[in-house]
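TOKENISE THE FOLD
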Amino acid sequence: MKLPLTLSQIPSIEPSVPAERQVHEKAIYWPGHVDFRGDEPTPDLSAFPTFAAMKARASARPPSPLAAFARAVRDAQDRVLIIDRFLFTPEHGSAQVNIDAVMAWFRTGPAVSDVRLLTSASGEEQTEIERQFSELAKLINSNQLHRATRIDIRINFNLKDLIYEIHDRFAIIDNELWHFGATVGGLHPGLSAASRGWAADKHGAIAFFDCAWRAASMVTQRHDKGRPRV
């Protein structure tokens, strides 16, 4: 059994710094729900939902995503970084449910060049997830040839192999830190909130993500060395 990496094995790196951008004012949201008539999802909530709303959301397939987060990804200018072990593990249904939801954030072609998703998935799911996101990146780049930079979507599935368990889920959009009580983007049907408006660099989020990404990449290299040559 291979032991997780220790901190001393992770090379120190300088965190990347995006262009200075104004961070959104601090806010807390609860994802909306599909009402009992089966109509359009309700807007994001700014207060705890009613029990009726909780019940409606829990029974929705899939649950309504967090609209504010989708808009933030759409308007991103530098990068979108996500740490979420269960990003592609929906509460109900196959991984494709969340694959479709996450891909929808990027189909509008945000101006970002750096998209990194640090997560986990089974071996068979990893291949399919990488294939679909690779095709998405190619489609975005081919449709936006006027862009100065090309979008690069990278996914690392080794989050569970890092030395420390990362329980909460986080996203960094440009220099804004988002914190999620459950799946990033409001993709979990349970009662959970998301907060935004934190300066990612001031709270050490950028350095933490870069360190975790480098550690997860080292796990990939270690696994590759252990595979037999064919």
User: Anything to note?
Assistant: The mean pLDDT is 86.
